[in-house]
Specification:
Largest sheet: 7 strands, mixed
Shape: globular
Structural class: mainly beta
Radius of gyration: 13 Å
Number of helices: 1
Distance between the termini: 40 Å
Number of strands: 11
Strand content: over 45%
């Protein structure tokens, strides 16, 4: 079983930056890909970014390319999401998740991620 805790959310003005962190504990050999998803009120959970098991490959949703950067510290069991040039439409609860699939297989499909954190709220004011 893998436990995950997100942190770093908050309220920021449009154009500002935030850095989300995801701490994992438990069986680190049970997952490979890690990802960030977000869910706005009344909407489905959407893919944001994912990083491979060796942290050498990444994928991003088109809506965040060039603004967000995902990274992973394997030794520390940590994952990060640096969010720059934030927009009001980025407002959502952000979740980190792990998958036993490779990056190409897991990608943006939330059903292929098995462990999830409780989420952290990001609010971007205009």
């Amino acid at each position: 079983q893998v436990q995950m805790v997100e942190s770093g959310g908050g309220l920021v003005q449009a154009g500002g930056s935030l850095r989300l962190s995801c701490a994992t504990s438990g069986r680190s050999d049970s997952y490979y890909t890690m990802g960030w998803f977000r869910q706005a009120p009344g909407k489905e959970r959407d893919f944001v970014a994912a990083v491979s098991g060796r942290a050498n490959s990444t994928n991003y949703a088109d809506s965040v390319k060039g603004r967000f950067t995902i990274s992973r510290d394997i030794a520390k069991n940590m994952m990060y999401l640096q969010m720059n040039s934030l927009k009001p439409e980025d407002t959502a609860v952000y979740f980190c998740a792990t998958s036993s699939y490779t990056l190409d297989a897991a990608y943006a499909d939330p059903k292929r991620y098995t462990s999830w954190g409780q989420g952290t709220q990001v609010t971007v004011s205009s």
